[in-house]
């Protein structure tokens, strides 16, 4: 959502300088945060055991079409973005730094558990401390590989 909002604002900017700064931010958001990690991780876990990421009880509050809007529809939109808009991917060290910042911020879900006693994603309750560390490391590895894949795909198309 943030990426597409920034892209719209970027297209409306009249000045070249403002547009170039927004373009860099837009490209950073797209290349590091928007590429389909959520789609891949969510549907992989959902296919294994739905209750671990999206319990059936949630359907009473969020109908299945909202689930698909959040976890499915973004994939064709992102792939379409790759095909119609070239992006300048940041240097690997900048991308890794941004991924690390987001990964560390995402660890705030552990704070939610420590404060409230409920895991944001039921899957996390099945891990030991070492398992959680391994799971987060695995996720960061997948995100990094998706960054490289996105960069290669962008280079191939453009």
Question: How does this model look, in words?
Answer:
The protein is mainly alpha-helical. The mean pLDDT is 82. The longest helix has 29 residues, at 129-157. Helix 1 (2-12) runs antiparallel to helix 2, helix 2 (16-34) packs across helix 6 and helix 6 runs antiparallel to helix 8. The chain is built from eight helices and no strands. The chain is globular, with a radius of gyration of 17 Å. The protein has one domain (2-157). The chain crosses the membrane at residues 28-48, 68-84, 96-121, 127-149.
Main attributes of the structure:
mainly alpha, 8 helices, 158 residues, globular
Describe the protein's topology.
Layout: H1 2-12, H2 16-34, H3 37-48, H4 64-71, H5 74-84, H6 92-106, H7 108-116, H8 129-157
Helix pairs in contact: 1-2, 2-6, 6-8
Mean pLDDT: 82
> Level of helix content?
over 70%
The topology string of helices and strands comes to HHHHHHHH
**Total of DSSP H or I helical runs spanning 4+ residues:** 8
Class by alpha and beta content: mainly alpha
What is the total domain count? 1
Strand tally: 0
Globally, the shape reads globular
User: In percent terms, what proportion of residues is strand?
Assistant: under 5%
Q: Give the biggest beta sheet.
A: none
Distance between the termini: 24 Å
Unreliable spans:
none
């Amino acid at each position: 959502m943030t990426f597409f909002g920034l892209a719209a604002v970027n297209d409306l900017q009249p000045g070249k300088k403002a547009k170039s700064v927004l373009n860099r931010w837009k490209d950073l958001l797209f290349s590091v945060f928007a590429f389909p990690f959520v789609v891949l991780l969510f549907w992989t876990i959902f296919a294994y055991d739905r209750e671990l990421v999206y319990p059936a009880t949630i359907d009473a509050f969020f109908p299945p079409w909202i689930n698909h809007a959040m976890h499915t529809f973004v994939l064709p939109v992102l792939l379409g973005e790759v095909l119609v808009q070239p992006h300048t991917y940041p240097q690997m060290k900048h991308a890794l730094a941004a991924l690390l910042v987001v990964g560390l911020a995402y660890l705030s879900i552990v704070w939610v558990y420590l404060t409230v006693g409920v895991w944001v994603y039921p899957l996390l309750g099945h891990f030991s401390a070492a398992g959680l560390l391994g799971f987060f490391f695995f996720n960061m590895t997948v995100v990094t590989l998706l960054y490289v894949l996105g960069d290669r795909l962008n280079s191939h198309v453009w």
